């Protein structure tokens, strides 16, 4: 989530606002959506305040250089900032719904906390209500969203109701779908268009449970995957490419091909250099160039079983050319950057680039611009 410096209407409180022009307010005002209008000067502010004084109490103004029309924001006036929870012009959209988790993964990018944070899903539902133009996809992430139980279903229903054509990408460890009560609450009668993104780090419980630091997780996740299949849900399996996973990647791919052929696709993901990954650098900080034979071998096995697969978060110059066609430009806009060395790279427009915080962590490889054309 972006935080941007802003001055807002006096007395404003934290609640969702849709950023619009004054003409859009006049043309499309409704009582159950909050509108905020970017202003340039005092005259603009007083026009908004006059309208508010006449009883239009869901209208406010904002002065901020980085605000964009279509943004859904939450003002934090005491800090002189607003949280931009949704940016219309982004390619990737994500709703962060809890920081609690029942796993403790070695490379977790968002280390979990224990505090009750039900307000996050309340705000996520408000964001969904305030989005004007339905996005193609919207991600749901945490923490572990299934810990929200029925409240997660409320969010899925709200997205479906307001944005029926939007695909929901729900990132979950799937463990709680081993509980009948949770299955009933979340999956019974579910008609929202959901893709379930479920991490699986090994072909055996010892490896998976070690990576997620939770005994019993492998069995629970497998049970969850079978439940999702039973309910006809679309599943993307995810493996983060840290050392123990790469060492047994061929076994994992064989396991998937033999036992989980119903999955829609498998995503092999470069590790994000943040959170617990920084504390477990010895197994997370690696150069994918040193693992090309494992990556090409994994792709070969998945191809043999007819399992669709892709590589995420990896710069193209970290991969062999044979894998470029399956590399996805996947890092969310707000956390993606390129290195100085990327200037002039012929593949820049299709490359994932780097996580913005790579400087605090590490480079995923030695960045080398790609030039294929004959000079
Ligand atoms: S040089 Fe930069 S843009 Fe080119 S492949 Fe490497 S990371 Fe991507």
Automatic annotation (TrEMBL):
Keyword Chaperone on entry? no
| Alphabetized Pfam families for the sequence | Radical_SAM
Record InterPro entries:
Aldolase_TIM, Radical_SAM_PqqE_MftC-like, rSAM, rSAM_paired_HxsC, rSAM_sf
Gene3D superfamilies cross-referenced by the UniProt entry: Aldolase class I
Question: RNA-binding among the record's keywords?
Answer: no
Per the entry, which co-factors are needed?
Answer: [4Fe-4S] cluster
Domain Radical SAM core, residue spans:
87-308
Q: Which UniProt keywords apply?
A: Iron, Iron-sulfur, Metal-binding, S-adenosyl-L-methionine
What is the protein named?
His-Xaa-Ser system radical SAM maturase HxsC
The organism is Duganella qianjiadongensis
Q: The organism's lineage?
A: Bacteria, Pseudomonadati, Pseudomonadota, Betaproteobacteria, Burkholderiales
